[in-house]
Amino acid sequence: MPFARLAAAATPLSRLGLGLAAVGRPGYITLGRDRDLPAERTVDALRARTHELLDAAYAQGVRYLDAARSYGRAEEFLADWLRARPEIDDVVVGSKWGYTYTANWTTDAERHEVKDHGLATYERQRAETAALLGDRLDLYQIHSVTPDSPALTDRALHARLAEAAAQGLTIGFSTSGPAQADAIRAALEVTVDGAPLFRTVQSTYNALETSAGEALAEAHEAGLTVIVKEGMANGRLAGPHAPEALRAVARETGHGCDAIALALILSRPWAGVVLSGAATVPQLTSNLSAAAVELDDDHLDRLARLAEDPRDYWARRGQLPWH
């Protein structure tokens, strides 16, 4: 398991990773993102921003890097960064397949990505990822599995994923939507020749959306590494948008709202890696300060009251505009 390298990294930030969803393409649904990136979002401008973030993350101790085929050119930007720094050999690189980026580098596309968990899409996207990241890829996850995803029942796909695993690639899945817990539990039952197929799970979990918590604890107990995404709830937990209870804890501890939001996730014993989705270096540095936050029982109790009904949470997320 490549995540054993994180445990041996001897860095206090080994449980924090950097996700590239916000900087690999010109449009994304994070609140405030229209102000975070250059007005001219050329490929070169976002490549430079991505490399700046990767440099800052690595210098501060981050060792897990997360991309996806649907994150525009995120894999390309990450591959460029790795090639330019051959001395860096201690990072764990993860990516995902199952969505195809269709916005053609615009922010006003009718559809920004198209989902398909079929075997043909896996074969195509696996080849595309391999062409960019080669043997630097450690983890390949099915992107946004839901309980009705054919990826949970397609035995031909499972066999191909098992072949990749036998060649040294770690296989995992991510989840989205109000039924994440059901998807996680269904995925835990997927086996090939009697052995569990998946070794990681990447799910949305944050102060507003906690419904996957018990299932993620079960996955951890089953031996999977748990990666948490969207810890900032697409910007809803950042300073300008954060609920008052979160702001109060931030004031009391002397940390930013973002650090409190991520520290809450780090307090979960099942959380293996918690992703920052920062789009600027100051955001990243503030996010990473979560590792130094200590939340007491009173803080945790007050933050627990922020949880929303998952159906309401995901309905609101679905209405966020692509900036």
Automatic annotation (TrEMBL):
Residues 50-306 form the NADP-dependent oxidoreductase domain. It holds the Pfam family Aldo_ket_red. PANTHER family: D-THREO-ALDOSE 1-DEHYDROGENASE, NADP-DEPENDENT OXIDOREDUCTASE DOMAIN-CONTAINING PROTEIN. This is Aldo/keto reductase.
